[in-house]
Amino acid sequence: MSDTPAVEVVDLHKRFGELEVLRGVSTRVDRGEVVSIIGASGSGKSTLLRCINYLEQPTSGEVRIEGEPVGFERRADGSTRRRSAREIARFRRELGMVFQQFNLWPHMTVLGNVIEAPIRVRGLSRRAALELGRACLDRVQLAEKANEYPARLSGGQQQRVAIARALAMQPKVMLFDEATSALDPELTGEVLEVMRGLATDGTTMIVVTHEMAFAREVSDRAIFLHNGLVEEEGAPAQVFGDPKSERCRQFLAKLLH
Amino acid sequence: MGNWERLVWNQRDVLIQGLLVTIEICAIAFAAAIVMGLGLALIRLYVRPLRWIAGFWIEYCRATPIFVQLMWVNYVWPELIGWPTSFYTAGWVALALQSSGYLAETFRAGIENVGRGQREAAAAVGMSPVLAFRRVVMPQVLLAIAPAIVTQFTVIVKSSTLVSVITVQDLMFQSQRLVNVWYEPIEILTATAGIYILFIFTVSAIGKALADRLRLRYGIGN
Amino acid sequence: MFSENLRETFNLALFWEYRHILLAGLAFNFYVFACSVGVSVVLGFLAALGRVNPLRPLRWLGAIHVETFRNAPDYVMLVWVHFVLPLLISQAIGQRVTFAPFVSAVIALGLVYSGYLAETFRAGIQAVPKGHIEAARACGMGGPLIMRRIILPQAVRMMLPEAMNNFVSLFKATTIVSLITVPDMMYNVSMVTQQEMRPLPLYTGAAITYFLIIWAVAGLARLASERWRRKIWA
Question: Per residue in B102-121, pLDDT tens?
Fold first, then answer.
């Protein structure tokens, strides 16, 4: 059981009309592992992440969470059945998502954002949710902002609230979709600090990012996507330090200069 | 001043009675218009096979003058579908029809303006589309369109003066009845106009203040 | 029974039979509309100038004008102008005055919609960036010249869609003038109804006619004003 990967992606394809964004991506993420996905814009890295929690429906291929396919059910006789929106929503609880644009709900307080899903989706009592919510806000060092509305917070603070909101579902895996790209440079540090803390605590994480130094330092494995395919994959030291792929080398060189 | 006392102040019970009927019929029409408007907007956005019917109905309600609509509902509907059976009902139904078209468009714009990311964030924590709509989308819509809803209520109050034509005993009806009793229109009609203007002004001012307070509280809009 | 009534409702032959009278009535809707547009644009513009004026008393006057007429129901104003205003004027000049229904209709609708238009104009005027006005002043232009050459050309384009909405509302409001016996289409419909005792096709025909006119005109107006605006702001 323990060798079942937390997330497994098998031959994933995603097509938007004429444009094929993912062209057969396969990879696995083990429990406690931190995997960063890098690549130029348009390489399909955000789409891969969004396919993993089915915000985008893959055109073909499989996503498995702890061995269970998300999009369909495999019956004993080998036939398959597409899962309903409700069933997919159940899988999403296991995956915490942090968006580039935070997407905090503006009409709820910070604490309200964090406890909303635990109460309404997981069915926690209000008291338990409040306790959990405060603990999650503590983890992102924003306990004192619990009763503010999101619009009054800086971008960095909003993103930390978004992380707390995802954590409050106690997901098995955290997905970060360019979590610092919408922030002013001076605000990225606090968010990366929180993410680093999560990684150290053993959280399973998939991180789509442009922060190469962070990816190199924090992740256990790095994946370089190019044109919808895994071009290079391996330990960060190797991917960042001595990439085998010429395209990966060029990509990194461009970023450093 | 004697005239004012005799014609207006001494008749205040009648006028207040009329104003209460005005408020009542407007409140009923307003509630019905909100329910119908939201329903039409949802059908137009999410029920593909019925979309064009909702679209046509919205356009019809918006582009037909309220007085024409009132006459239509009052004279044609009872013959056609056996309802409404009273002038009072015909009155609020016509008022509600008119406003439901506008409110449907307001709701639709409001719903479309809630960013995609908001729903995605809801989906990402495992909310069903219905739960996300109820808890995440709708509150933001209401916040955004609160001023437009208040304006629509004042439109209903203004249009409601026409129900006096089909003998609903609202303020306008009572005031014209007083004019017909005394044959002295100056004070009565001026007072009636004043009451309407003051009432609508107050409703808009309070509504605007409340909407501003709400938006300020959440720090959104301006 | 139901299908019979349904057939009767959409049996527009009766409506067609009286088309000359009804069309003559519709013409009255357009007369009232055209004249009221004139009154409301002039008064609305004056009120808007008052509202953006540096002089406080003028600002107050403009505000009172707007708040009074914007918050007055059309029908109440119509009745007030028709039955009260002539009496007030009579008292003031010591001579008996009455208004023809048509005149009352134009004054009343003109007044009410001048309130809405004033707000539309004001919003358009205030949407012109301060920098443009300062630039004009820096070139040595005076107040009226700035208003005419710099502010209005931009403001008119900006407020056009909203002004179109106001005009469409004004046209819809012209259907109530029958209540003070201006012989518009609704008036003629009610007359014919009394003669024929068949309200279904007549009121349905009127509703359809008004709907088609307003729907088409509103759509065209939206299209035209959008296109004109886009010429300036790509």
Answer: 999 999 999 999 989 999 99
Q: Would an 8 Å CB–CB cutoff place B65 in contact with chain A?
A: no
What CATH number does residue A36 fall under? 3.40.50.300
Q: Indicate yes or no: CB of A121 within 8 angstroms of CB of B126.
A: yes
Q: Which residue has the tokens 């937390």?
A: A6
Chains A and C touch (3+ CB pairs under 8 A): no
Q: What is the ipTM metric for this complex?
A: 0.91
> What DSSP designation does B72 have?
I
d(CA C98, CA C77): 16
Helix (H, G, I), strand (E, B) or coil at C141: coil
Q: Which of C80, C176, C215 sits opposite B162 (nearest CB)?
A: C176
Is A228 contained in some domain? Answer: yes
Residues 59-98 of C with CB under 8 A from B: 67-68, 71-77, 79-80, 83-84, 87-88
Residue A74, domain member (yes or no): yes
Number of domains in chain A: 1
Calpha distance C106→B107 (Å, rounded): 34
Within an 8 Å CB–CB cutoff, is residue B47 touching chain A?
Answer: no
CB B161 within 8 A of CB B170: yes
Let me know the angle formed at the C-alpha of C20 by C15 and C23, rounded to the nearest 5 degrees.
80
Q: Which of A51, A53, A120, A136 to mutate to test the interface with B (most CBs of B within 10 A)?
A: A120
* pLDDT (average), residues B6-34: 93
CA–CA gap between residue A252 and residue A242 (Å, rounded): 10
What domain range includes position C101?
Answer: 2-232
Contact C175 B185 (CB under 8 A): no
Fold of B2-218: MetI-like fold (1.10.3720)
Q: What is the mean pLDDT of residues B46-62?
A: 93
The DSSP call for residue C177 is G
- Selecting from C67, C176, C200 the residue whose C-beta is nearest the C-beta of B67 gives C176
Q: CB of B5 within 8 Å of any CB in chain A?
A: no
pLDDT at position B222 is 42
Q: Residue A98 phi/psi, 5° resolution?
A: -120, 125
A180 falls within a domain:
no
Sign for the CA dihedral angle at A192, A198, A201, A202 comes to: negative
List CB contacts (< 8 A) between C83 and chain B: 179, 185, 189
The pTM of this model reads 0.87
**Total domains present in chain C:** 1
Give residue-wise pLDDT tens across range A138-188. Answer: 999 999 999 999 989 999 999 999 999 999 999 999 999 999 999 999 999
Q: Does A16 map to a domain?
A: yes
Structural domain range at position A255: 1-94+205-257
Residue C191 sits in a domain of what CATH number?
Answer: 1.10.3720.10
Q: How many CA atoms lie within 13 A of C34 on its CB side?
A: 5
Beta bridge partners of A221: A35
Contact B127 A86 (CB under 8 A): no
Tell me which amino acid residue B42 is: L
Give domain limits for chain B: 2-218
The string of pLDDT tens digits covering residues C129-161 is 888 888 888 887 888 888 888 888 888 888 888
- CB within 8 A of A250, min separation 6: which ones? none
Q: Check if B128 contacts A (Cβ < 8 Å).
A: yes
Cα separation, A39 vs A45, in Å, equals: 7
DSSP C32-63: HHHHHHHHHHHHHHHHHHHHT-SSHHHHHHHH
**What are the chain C neighbours of B192 within 8 Å (beta carbons)?**
76, 80
Which percentage of chain A shows pLDDT scores above 90?
81
Q: How far apart are CA B191 and CA B184, in angstroms?
A: 12
| A 66-85 → B contacts, CB under 8 A | 85
**Amino acid A257: pLDDT:** 63
